[in-house]
UniProtKB/TrEMBL annotation:
<dbReference type="Pfam" id="PF01425">
    <property type="entry name" value="Amidase"/>
</dbReference>
<dbReference type="InterPro" id="IPR014087">
    <property type="entry name" value="Carboxybiuret_hydro_AtzE"/>
</dbReference>
<protein>
    <submittedName>
        <fullName>Amidase</fullName>
    </submittedName>
</protein>
<dbReference type="InterPro" id="IPR000120">
    <property type="entry name" value="Amidase"/>
</dbReference>
<dbReference type="InterPro" id="IPR036928">
    <property type="entry name" value="AS_sf"/>
</dbReference>
<dbReference type="InterPro" id="IPR023631">
    <property type="entry name" value="Amidase_dom"/>
</dbReference>
<dbReference type="GO" id="GO:0003824">
    <property type="term" value="F:catalytic activity"/>
</dbReference>
<feature type="domain" description="Amidase">
    <location>
        <begin position="21"/>
        <end position="430"/>
    </location>
</feature>
Amino acid sequence: MSLTAVAIANTVRFGLRTARDVVETTLEAIGTRNQTYHCVTRLLTERALHMADTLDARIANGDPVGVLAGVPFGVKDLFDMEGLVTTAGSVVLNGNPPATQDAAVVQRLVAAGAIPVATLNMDEFAYGFSTENAHYGTTRNPRNTDCLAGGSSGGSAASVAAGLLPFALGSDTNGSIRVPASLCGVWGLRPTQGLLPLDGVYPFVASLDTVGPFAGTVTDLQRVFEAMNGHALEEIEDVRSLRIARLGGWFLQDVDPAILDGIDRILAFFGSHKEVDLAEVARARASAFLISAAEGGNLHLPRLRKTPMDYDPATRDRLIAGAMLPSAAVVQAHRFRNWFRTGLHELFEQVDVLLAPATPGPAPRIDQATLSVGGKTVSARANLGLFTQPLSLGGMPVLSAPLPPAASASTSGMPLGIQIIAAPGKENVLFAIGKALSHAGLAGYPVLGGPVPDKG
């Protein structure tokens, strides 16, 4: 897919190209190239072509169509799609009845004219940061297929980075949008907790789950988010007047120096040298781990008692361990979460935007099992959310922004990403910052065979 979502919609709406041609081209590209990346699990060919023909007929009749008219997209395999069994990246749910309707956010995108063409690979039941799936295979990073795409929304991020789709949907509980967006070099958004409906989305951790989009440009990402949210965002008139700071302490340790250099350049662009610290970040991360394990484990406990061997062994063991956690520990984790969230929100009395790394460094190789954290050798897959997981407790919106290719010269050209964090409900601030950085060449990474970063 060589055009942005905005460009595709414009060409279709004004009759310069048919929606059928766009969809057929997309399906052909996926059929040819997906075997390299393993990001697509199912094609929605019949439905997509029917929707395209219907849209083309409406345009020919002069009927109004949505702002995403004819734009193909994919969904992480935990979104309900009418007529399909929602697998959540597993075979455990294969006996469930097909969904009777699309997930709520998918319905909103369809109403805006977008056309779903595929379901996308993920960690089983969204429990992981690597998209190594025992049932559907490992999704490979399009920037280097020897490397992980990240997870759990790895198929979504990889499909955009590969130029197969202009945008895709994912979910983010502890970093499942932000981590793969960073590792694959695309834009991703974890919206404000509770802002977008989760109807028709298979749950993982109800108290932390969110859904959001990936896109190759920040302009596309905003257009898609606005369609998901149901209204346009209020524009920020003077972006340079926003108060911006970096998170210090925990967020300066075990980070690739190129990421810190990228954050330095962004701060300089805004004329800021401010650094603020969060207290007890390590405990916040531990609380997120505990809450996720307990809620995920108890959600699956009835099925684990009946058909435990249907699960990926790694997922099964973590879910069983989580279900066995004592309730007192879970209660304490939630109490700590409330305290930590209050402190995080208080920072926004001092600043409008916070910056932090999205991952410790570039995507690890698939055969690279460990990385160094605090001088200790730890599991790479479990620690890719080192910087995303604590922030999930706050419920704020977070934009994952790729640094430009020049920033990754020291990482053999593999993408690096940052988190841009704002107060709840301030997605318009995030997009204003993202577009300013993209225009200035301080953020954005071109997708393969696709659009270059926004320049205005």
